[in-house]
């Protein structure tokens, strides 16, 4: 069985609620009109009948004539223009009628029976002789405390029925018109509500099938505008992530190919024995060793990325002298610095004891200092500074390099970021460094100005 769409379901729900409301309102209104017309007419006849009976009682007490002698006077004095006036004997036979037609049989209508038993009777039904819809009210005529006859008023309800039917038809017509109008308006509003949902569903399905360029193109307002914008932003981010992933794979392949090609070339040279002298052999072995170290470092970085992605990145804090670690890292990169004839200046190198994962903090400082050397011009100066600040360690590396564009600063700490495709590395270093610092409860930051330089640093809490 096919599922009902949200648009149809919403339309049916709205129409059901409004239809029930209209039916309830019409029911109450029709009931009120019915009561007003029919009960009002019955009340008029009843009041006239009671007043007539009271007047007749006093009249008959003063008159020496019997009820049969006075029926014509009663009929003349108490008749109503819109109703037939009847006088009924105590045995149920009609003594007189303002219509001139006298039924000779016994009348056994409910109002007559109630009038004899209860002192008053009202009946609404169909007159079997005329087939008319009538309203009858009967009251007793008394003389000397005894019921001597009944005074009965019979009014035709046909004109009232016609008026009521006209009003009923009008109300039903108005109700149907309102329902039609509600249907049109509900359809319009349900489309307003469901169109963005339908478009979102379609775009989501395309996105799920791999179409990362699927977007919501409709113009919406209120929350739907936010939803549309969020979906499109998500699609843009997925597209960007896919692009970064492809660039990452390409970059890793390139970064692996370069050292492997170098190792393979020198390995083949060593195997063939085509060496001019021992110095050339040492050069080849030195290159193989350096490229192997480079591969190991790259594999370690990829393993860190795997832990980062799985959320299994862990640290093992222990106390160690931070100032000594900084000096070791500077010494570790000394050859790279000298190759570019650069100076490294250490400011405020006071002894500080830090409780952290020494290996991971070394990795962060190496990354920051290596980036500074890599992106600085030969002969420039790199400044390293660290100090205490309100219970925190503040560490910074400042270079005089090419700097970073302002619109790239927010991305520089994300995975796979590379300023351009020609940049070295695979774009993991700073993102992993940020994760390490945050696991220690600190913060890594980068400030930069294009063609002026960059300051990269971090803060860590000191447990002193």
Automatic annotation (TrEMBL):
Q: Kindly state which reaction or reactions the protein catalyses.
A: ATP + protein L-histidine = ADP + protein N-phospho-L-histidine
The secretion signal range is none
Q: Which GO terms describe its cellular component?
A: plasma membrane
Residues spanning the membrane = 12-37, 167-189
How the protein sits in the membrane? Multi-pass membrane protein
**What are the residue boundaries of the Histidine kinase domain, all occurrences included?**
251-464
Subcellular localization is given as: Cell membrane
Domain (HAMP): give its ranges: 191-243
* UniProt main location, coarse: membrane
| UniProt GO molecular function | ATP binding; phosphorelay sensor kinase activity
Q: Which InterPro entries match?
A: HAMP_dom (IPR003660), HATPase_C_sf (IPR036890), HATPase_dom (IPR003594), His_kinase_dom (IPR005467), HisK_dim/P_dom (IPR003661), HisK_dim/P_sf (IPR036097), HssS/ArlS-like (IPR050398), Sig_transdc_His_kin-like_C (IPR004358)
EC number(s) on file: 2.7.13.3
- Coiled-coil intervals in this record? none
Q: What keywords were assigned to this record? A: ATP-binding, Cell membrane, Kinase, Membrane, Nucleotide-binding, Phosphoprotein, Transferase, Transmembrane, Transmembrane helix, Two-component regulatory system
Q: What is this protein called?
A: histidine kinase
The organism's lineage is:
Bacteria, Bacillati, Bacillota, Bacilli, Bacillales
